[in-house]
């Protein structure tokens, strides 16, 4: 990726030094200005008409003292896709974390229970401000019981760190809690059966921002067949409380298609800017 100072038509992102390794893991080259304390990453003008400094700020955004009521989104943030209208079955609606985990572990709601080694519930900070949702467990995840392990998991961790976060700061889950045999795509009936658990997880975490990781996750969460290229760069909404949702590529896809890492970096910048704005609005009592 072309990186450097003095390109006025390009957007800038000022990042902390500790993030450089993770940006490089994403395929984003970083030049270090000798006189500046921060590092400057220049992004092409494809998504920015004018220079827009984007400060990738504190590693941990402040959490409001009390969880605020979710405010109506400004017009620019309104969902670009229809909200799926799936009822939340009683099975998980009122469960707290441990009963929910137990319900998932014992679940036989779809045929995937017959081929799983174990369920993959999700992992992370149960009060996280960021939530990442992927597609389904793969072979490594099925074996270890944790989402996003292996090479794809390492790249997701790098993406999270590029946001100024640690993996432990966020909550990570999948649309499906059981591995589809042969890593095939989830079937609609399976995703519908498992959605109750995911919706309950999101409700319990109550994140500021949800990031859907990959086409399958995005299309399932939004109940759409729109290509991921048309879903990226927008703010969608998910679930009963219309949690803001953005889309990026799955790290497994980025490993197969390294040239797309550049787009993933744009997605992360978009997510970070949106998150910071949502936090400011939350602290101020809602969007202006
Ligand atoms: S994928 Fe979800 S709905 Fe299907 S058996 Fe596993 S936990 Fe139950």
Describe this structure in words.
The chain is an alpha/beta fold and 288 residues long. The protein has 10 helices and 9 strands. The protein has helices spanning 20-25, 90-93, 97-105, 139-144, 150-162, 188-205, 215-222, 228-231, 251-256, 261-284; strands at residues 11-15, 39-43, 54-55, 123-124, 130-134, 171-174, 209-213, 236-238, 243-248. The two termini are 36 Å apart. Mean pLDDT is 79; it is low at 1-14 and 32-88. It binds iron/sulfur cluster.
Secondary structure topology:
Blueprint: E1 11-15, H1 20-25, E2 39-43, E3 54-55, H2 90-93, H3 97-105, E4 123-124, E5 130-134, H4 139-144, H5 150-162, E6 171-174, H6 188-205, E7 209-213, H7 215-222, H8 228-231, E8 236-238, E9 243-248, H9 251-256, H10 261-284
Parallel strand pairs: 1-3, 5-6, 5-7, 7-9
Antiparallel strand pairs: 1-2, 4-6, 8-9
Bound molecules: iron/sulfur cluster.
Residues 104, 107-110, 112-113, 119, 176-178, 190, 193-194 line the site of iron/sulfur cluster (SF4).
Strand order of the largest sheet: 4-6-5-7-9-8
Largest sheet: 6 strands, mixed
Question: Which ligands, by name, code or SMILES, are bound?
Answer: iron/sulfur cluster
Rounded radius of gyration (Å)? 19 Å
Mean pLDDT: 79
Strand content: 5-15%
* Percent helix range: 25-40%
Global geometry: globular
Structural class: alpha/beta
Instruction: Give the N-terminus to C-terminus distance in angstroms.
Output: 36 Å
Residue windows where pLDDT falls under 50 for at least 5 positions: 1-14, 32-88
Number of helices: 10
Order of helices and strands: EHEEHHEEHHEHEHHEEHH
- Say how many strands there are: 9
């Amino acid at each position: 990726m072309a990186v450097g100072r003095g390109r006025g038509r390009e957007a800038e992102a000022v990042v902390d030094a500790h993030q450089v390794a993770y940006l490089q893991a994403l395929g984003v080259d970083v030049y270090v200005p000798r006189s500046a304390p921060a590092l400057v990453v220049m992004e092409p003008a494809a998504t920015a008409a004018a220079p827009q400094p984007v400060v990738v700020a504190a590693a941990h955004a402040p959490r409001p003292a009390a969880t605020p009521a979710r405010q109506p989104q400004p017009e620019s943030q309104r969902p670009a896709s229809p909200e799926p209208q799936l009822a939340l079955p009683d099975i998980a609606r009122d469960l707290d974390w441990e009963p929910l985990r137990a319900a998932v572990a014992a679940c036989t709601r779809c045929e995937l229970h017959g081929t799983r080694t174990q369920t993959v519930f999700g992992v992370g900070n149960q009060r996280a401000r960021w939530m990442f949702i992927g597609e389904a467990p793969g072979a490594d995840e099925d074996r270890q019981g944790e989402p996003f392990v292996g090479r794809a998991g390492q790249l997701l961790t790098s993406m999270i760190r590029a946001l100024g976060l640690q993996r432990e700061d966020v909550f990570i889950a999948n649309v499906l809690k059981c591995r589809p045999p042969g890593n095939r795509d989830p079937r609609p009936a399976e995703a519908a059966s498992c959605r109750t658990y995911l919706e309950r997880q999101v409700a319990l975490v109550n994140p500021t921002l949800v990031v859907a990781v990959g086409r399958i996750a995005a299309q399932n969460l939004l109940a759409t067949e729109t290509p991921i290229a048309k879903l990226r760069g927008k703010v969608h909404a998910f679930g009963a409380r219309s949690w803001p949702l953005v889309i990026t590529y799955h790290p497994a896809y980025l490993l197969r298609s390294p040239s797309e890492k550049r787009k993933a970096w744009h997605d992360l910048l978009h997510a970070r800017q949106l998150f910071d704005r949502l936090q400011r609005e939350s602290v101020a009592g809602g969007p202006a």
